[in-house]
């Protein structure tokens, strides 16, 4: 058996780039101290997330203010990611940032080591208002790393079973889910544990792991930024849906050691091999556009998010 130690962070990141580098360096050192070979950092951990999601009846003044407050847009081959790669050394690190492609911005993630970038991803599914700041990505693709075949997704992606399934079918054994997942905007509560969106976050993490029989590693932002309060709840979930380690609703680092091949073999060899027992010939409607002939349309009152 070959055991892999994984660390995942719930941590606070804002616009101060030097503060971001300092926090990343501290988390890398903590992960190394635990003997980890993989560290998963949150969405938007280099320069912070959006201060609000905007949209709706937003005024032009508010729109311009929001556009001026966007995180710095970084190139894949730029000095910012090279600096983090140097910090990483032989540690595999997954992290989120705002990617520049000419004048276009993407909510993006990379997995890298000191040798460079192993894989990159642009967020496909956008929650209300994020499309006002970022273009959407267009693919899910697994990639090989020194610790096994991996896949990445970002935040709202985890609410779509098809996203994780696409990565699992492409051979991903470990899926990293990076988030800046906030609390609910209505029916707010004092305790993060009682928040509706905290509970959703945790349900999605366990469901995506068990239905694809993969090791699922979910990071998240912590603290507050702009109008958003983040739920933390970074965790590592085994392929049977069991939570192997979690920060709970506190910032920090969660670490677990797992024999990935053995864990996947146990989950998939017990008479329930979810990927192998699929019936794709029956699933055409899963990829049909919602509201086509013969299918129900989205009710008008649900067409706008009630989050």
Report on the structure:
By secondary structure, the protein is an alpha/beta fold. Helices cover 23% and strands 25% of the residues. It contains six helices and 15 strands. Strands 1, 2, 3, 4, 5, 10 and 15 form a seven-stranded mixed beta sheet that branches. A hairpin with a 2-residue loop joins strand 4 and strand 5.
Strand content: 25-35%
Mean pLDDT: 92
Question: How many alpha or pi helices?
Answer: 6
Order of helices and strands: EHEHHEEEEEHEHEEEEEEEH
- Tell me the radius of gyration: 19 Å
Distance between the termini: 45 Å
Coarse structural class: alpha/beta
Largest sheet: 7 strands, mixed
Number of strands: 15
Estimate the global geometry from the Cα principal axes.
globular
Query: How much helicity do the residues have?
Result: 10-25%
Low-confidence parts, pLDDT < 50 over ≥5 residues?
298-307
Question: Gist?
Answer:
By secondary structure, the chain is α/β, with parallel strands linked by helices.
List the helices and strands and how they pair.
Layout: E1 4-11, H1 17-33, E2 38-40, H2 60-68, H3 79-88, E3 92-101, E4 104-113, E5 116-122, E6 143-145, E7 148-154, H4 161-169, E8 174-178, H5 196-212, E9 215-218, E10 220-221, E11 224-225, E12 228-229, E13 235-237, E14 243-246, E15 252-258, H6 260-268
